[in-house]
């Protein structure tokens, strides 16, 4: 039996997904974790957010991946306009070893019937 492992809502299935890879100084991992933890907390409260989490790469120290789902492009623009977002970007700049990579995705298949 195949189950919907992500338990996606219909809104999330049709939302705009962002996958963002961040590259930070491995020696400053604790700072990066604290920064991403706060950013997720802030972002989850922004209008139009359907999902938001950050994962740490298991093989590449200092690499983190943000997985975000937003109702639409307007929700992303709203998130970027919130007071917490430029603070996050300024703090991130102090930790980055190279520029982040952003991908916009939409579901093709979810593995559930």
TrEMBL record:
Annotated ranges, domain ABM: 16-104
Family matches, as InterPro entries: ABM_dom, AI-2_Isomerase_LsrG, Dimeric_a/b-barrel
Gene3D superfamilies named in the record: 3.30.70.100
Domain of life: Bacteria
Single GO MF annotation: catalytic activity
SUPFAM superfamilies associated with the record: Dimeric alpha+beta barrel (SSF54909)
Name the record gives this protein: Putative oxidoreductase
Taxonomic classification: Bacteria, Pseudomonadati, Planctomycetota, Phycisphaerae, Phycisphaerales
